[in-house]
Design brief:
- There is one protein chain.
- It is elongated, with a radius of gyration of 27 Å.
- 54% of the residues lie in helices and 7% in strands.
- Helix 9 runs antiparallel to helix 10.
- The longest helix is centred in the first third of the chain and has 19 residues.
- The chain has 17 helices and four strands.
- The protein folds into three domains: 71 residues, 434 Repressor (Amino-terminal Domain) (Orthogonal Bundle); 42 residues, no CATH class; 163 residues, no CATH class.
- A hairpin with a 3-residue loop joins strand 3 and strand 4.
- By secondary structure, it is α+β, with helices and mostly antiparallel strands.
- The relative contact order is 0.08.
- It has a four-stranded mixed sheet with strand order 1-3-4-2, with helices on both faces.
- The protein starts with 13 loop residues before the first helix and ends in an 18-residue tail after the last helix.
- It comes from Acinetobacter suaedae.
- One of its GO terms (molecular function) is DNA binding.
- This is ImmA/IrrE family metallo-endopeptidase.
- InterPro entries: Lambda_DNA-bd_dom_sf.
Length: 370
């Protein structure tokens, strides 16, 4: 019998080991007797327990000894009983909804046991298996950010903190070899805005990520969780790496680029507040509304450069928009070419300022995610 003082906090069923043996030993199951095929099928797909008869069939067909397979089954049974009876935190029920969502998105492994779900959730947040999971800890250690809610949706700080944590884990996979370089990032923003003319995210994703990484910025796109109606998030990781998160809440190209440049504005303008404000509040006496306005103004100035907002508004023929929409669209395209951005982005900017009604030129916008 397999025996060890090590007690794993995972369960690896015999069905997976059987499946691996079939692959590694290149067993052609189609050439086996039909009854043997059924035994293997039920083992792999239905997790049929291995008894003495099945162990002998495995020994003859895929390798290993009969005792080896009986030991595997016995150890699995012991581990399952131990996991089923392992202690879960008293507040575990507070996280059931979040755990369900994380399983659906494959952000944590799937399991049928509360204890393993708890282990996986703690591992996700970098918390020891033997420490108590608390919402206060999760929120305080992840929400050093400026974020923008969409509309007046209800939100959950725990879910938003989870979104940020996932982005930080993904950011570690990117090749960022230098610290945050504000001057270089500002310089590269004019190169980045040209990418708005590429219609699909997958066609510019790597280029945008590489440019950001060169400036000490991680760039992440994530689906949102329930009660996390966030368009964009920006923060600093370890005080020296910028992080921009864009969510797929709105699948529209102009919204994507407005959000990116807005969050870039927070990195450039508010790095001091974002690094040192553990509770998400600015270090100086500047209101959240003021910070958001500053980020919006930064977004406009960078996207419309070398023109000012007033220049662009004066270049747009508003009367033509009401009398001849086709000619008005050509007017938008001409201005966009001069600015070196997409017509959709320019239209979105003018809509944001109330120059163009939101129900105009809707065909000019594109879905950015497939």
């Amino acid at each position: 019998m397999l025996n060890s003082e090590f007690q794993p906090n995972w369960i690896y069923p015999p069905s997976k080991i059987v499946e691996n043996f079939i692959v590694l030993n290149q067993v052609d199951t189609s050439k086996l007797h039909s009854r043997t095929q059924k035994v293997l099928h039920d083992l792999v797909n239905k997790n049929t327990p291995i008894d003495i008869n099945i162990s002998k069939i495995l020994e003859e067909t895929i390798g290993g000894t009969a005792q080896f397979w009986l030991n595997i089954q016995h150890q699995f049974t012991l581990n399952t009983l131990r996991i089923e009876n392992s202690h879960v935190d008293n507040n575990f029920n507070d996280y059931r909804g979040l755990i369900t969502e994380l399983k659906k998105t494959d952000w944590i492994p799937k399991s049928n046991y509360d204890y393993l779900d708890q282990v996986h959730l703690k591992s996700f947040f970098g918390i020891s298996e033997f420490s108590i999971l608390t919402k206060k800890y999760i929120i305080q250690h992840n929400l050093r950010i400026k974020f923008k809610n969409i509309g007046k949706y209800s939100s959950s700080e725990l879910n938003i903190a989870t979104l940020v944590r996932k982005a930080e884990l993904e950011a570690k996979k990117q090749l960022i070899t230098k610290q945050w370089d504000k001057a270089l990032f500002l310089e590269k923003l004019q190169e980045i805005k040209k990418l708005s003319k590429v219609r699909k995210f997958n066609d510019f994703k790597l280029e945008l990520q590489n440019i950001c990484n060169q400036c000490g910025v991680a760039f992440i796109v994530l689906d949102t969780l329930n009660k996390s109606p966030i368009r964009g998030i920006s923060k600093f990781i370890n005080n020296h790496t910028g992080l921009i998160i864009i969510t797929t809440k709105y699948n529209q190209d102009d919204v994507f680029w407005q959000t990116f440049f807005h969050e870039a504005g927070h990195l450039v303008l508010h790095s001091k507040e974002m690094v040192f404000a553990d509770q998400g509040a600015p270090a100086e006496k500047v209101t959240t509304e003021e910070l958001e306005t500053q980020a919006d103004n930064f977004m406009l100035s960078q996207i419309l450069y070398p023109y000012t907002n007033e220049d662009v508004i004066s270049m747009f023929n508003k009367k033509l928009m009401y009398s001849a929409k086709e000619k008005s669209w050509r007017n938008i395209c001409q201005i966009a070419r001069q600015i070196n951005i997409s017509p959709s982005l320019l239209t979105g900017i003018l809509k944001l300022q109330g120059i163009i009604p939101y129900n105009y030129f809707t065909n000019g916008h594109n879905k950015i995610y497939d």
